[in-house]
Amino acid sequence: MPTWWVRKSGKNKDDSHLLQPTQTRSVSDKTIRRVSADSKSSPDPVTPSRCTPRCSREFASSGSGEKKCHPLPLPSLSTSVPNDHVSGSVSGSASVSSVSSSGSAEDQSQPTPPRKSNAVSPKAGTRPTSPLHNRFSGMTLESSSTDGRSSEYHPLPLPPGSPTTSPSVVLPCSPASPSSGVQGSWVVGGGSESSPLGVSKWKKGRFIGSGTFGKVYQGFNSEEGRICAIKEVKVISDDKNSKECLKQLNQEINVLSQLCHPNIVQYYGSELSEETLSVYLEYVSGGSIHKLLTEYGAFTEPVIQNYTRQILSGLAYLHGRNTVHRDIKGANILVDPNGEIKLADFGMAKHVTAYSTMLSFTGSPYWMAPEVVMHKNGYTLAVDVWSVGCTILEMATAKPPWSQFEGVAAIFKIGNSKDMPEIPDHLSNDAKNFIRLCLQRNPTVRPTAAQLLEHPFLRVHSPRVASTSASPRSYDGSSAMPIREPPFPGRHPVFHPIKSPSRENVRAITSLPVSPCSSPLRQLGPAYKSCFLSPPHPSYAFPVQDSGYNHAEFAASPFRFKKDALIEPSSYRAQAPSSPFRSRLV
Ligand SMILES: Nc1ncnc2c1ncn2[C@@H]1O[C@H](COP(=O)(O)OP(=O)(O)OP(=O)(O)O)[C@@H](O)[C@H]1O
């Protein structure tokens, strides 16, 4: 079973109201086997920056929409910090069980009673620290026990108005209206302001949907009346997959907690109780682009323009922090009721350093860049640009690119051919040119997200029909910016050229058992260490092109991965350089 299948096969990306009572899933379908990326190639997710997520929308720039973040004053270390390092370390062998789900939204929608929060109020003298859940990173767990029981917390910067926060500090990023004056909430260790008994002020509401690492609920801040989304996973000891799952979720926390942009879902904080890890996020009620495509069909070009502009705005911000999302696709892009785009699902995001290349094999195959599929020597921020091109095609057709091919064939097509996915005729020349720029196979010649924002396709007043513009800046493929020439050389410095496989190799490849984990396309040894494909959304139909979204057909694909291949690294080590398969490729 293909890895991406395993990961996504059972999850429901749609909002709960889309669930039919008959749409039950087996627990096995929902089991997630995603292992952390190669630690050698990607040492740390995100280096904590001084720019905390706390910033004000009032400072949003007009250009990319990036908000200025304002470092918070450090609290006085002379303050008593009894909970910063406390006894009661817990081994890192906890587990996540809520990655599986067979219940309907209704099953999950019962609000739970207030939970004991492990958040430590700043009023109690807690020092804001890194958002890392250390135990998930394989480090010693710092835990606090406010009620005599072992518990852990996830300290975050203090909220505005806390004793250690300067009055001059601007409000944190929050989903609240910029003019609302409502302060953001910092849940764990930084403003959960839970009761003395540790009861969380965040109340869990209706079930929204399931993801790889757990379930998403609507939440309510009982003190501020604010809605949020709660991503929750159960922490169960003795679950052999828990460590990796928690690492992955921690990665999402690490990345999101550093980000503050109107087109990126805002992180509020997290709480770790005895049973669950809850991550509090900006609630985006419109659902994903994928969901909108499923419900309303393909988007018109003006909508595509609008969404693409915002996607790139968020990406430009992200890439400006040397962080790559790695799973850009319609299902991971949320839309609020005003049409504002929010990039979400940062579970695979990675910080790229000058000294590292990414060798892990992650993402959703249909949106995956060739250099990722080929997995030759590493890849860069440019992989997201490729995925943006695929997402535009998805928005224009309500299907992912390459959808006429089943998963493995699509991977071959992406990795081993020079073909380009079909671009709908009805799109304007600007749009077509934009897509072609994104889908250049050589990542070094792909424009950056910031550069693409200058493309005529995204100009607010650009023509919305097939362009006959004679503009010297036209990207119609014939003028100022020829596609095949590197328009912006050297902007993806970590790129390593990918050699096309010889004919012989291609033959060998096609004769081998194929899966993303064991794929002969993955020709380098270290690749096997990290192999987690994000699946196409369950409701996408492959390979039957005109059947609309049909999860069942794809689920029945004979190319689905064996789950064990994901659980047991040794099963895909068979494809390491020393393996017999490997020898057939060289
Ligand atoms: N901040 C949010 N606001 C509203 N709905 C959300 C939010 N985040 C996620 N959702 C919805 O919750 C469901 C599950 O989301 P989640 O991110 O856990 O799944 P996912 O995107 O499939 O994650 P993964 O790729 O890790 O499996 C989806 O329907 C998604 O649209």
Task: Describe the protein in words.
ATP binds at residue 231. InterPro entries: Kinase-like_dom_sf, MAP_kinase_kinase_kinase, Prot_kinase_dom, Protein_kinase_ATP_BS. With 586 residues, this protein is an alpha+beta fold. The protein has 16 helices and 13 strands. The chain has helices spanning 3-8, 27-30, 105-108, 242-256, 289-296, 301-320, 370-374, 382-397, 407-416, 429-438, 449-452, 503-510, 551-555, 563-567, 569-573, 580-585, and strands at residues 143-144, 151-152, 202-211, 214-221, 226-234, 267-272, 276-282, 323-324, 333-335, 341-343, 350-351, 361-363, 531-533. The protein has a five-stranded antiparallel beta sheet with strand order 3-4-5-7-6. Strands 1-2 form a two-stranded antiparallel sheet. A hairpin with a 6-residue loop joins β1 (143-144) and β2 (151-152). The longest helix is centred in the middle third of the chain and has 20 residues, at 301-320. Mean pLDDT is 58; it is low at 1-172, 174-195, 462-536 and 541-586. Bound molecules: adenosine-5'-triphosphate. Adenosine-5'-triphosphate (ATP) is lined by residues 11, 13-15, 208-213, 216, 229, 231, 265, 281-284, 287-288, 331-332, 334, 344-345, 347, 534.
Short overview:
The chain has 586 residues and is of the alpha+beta class.
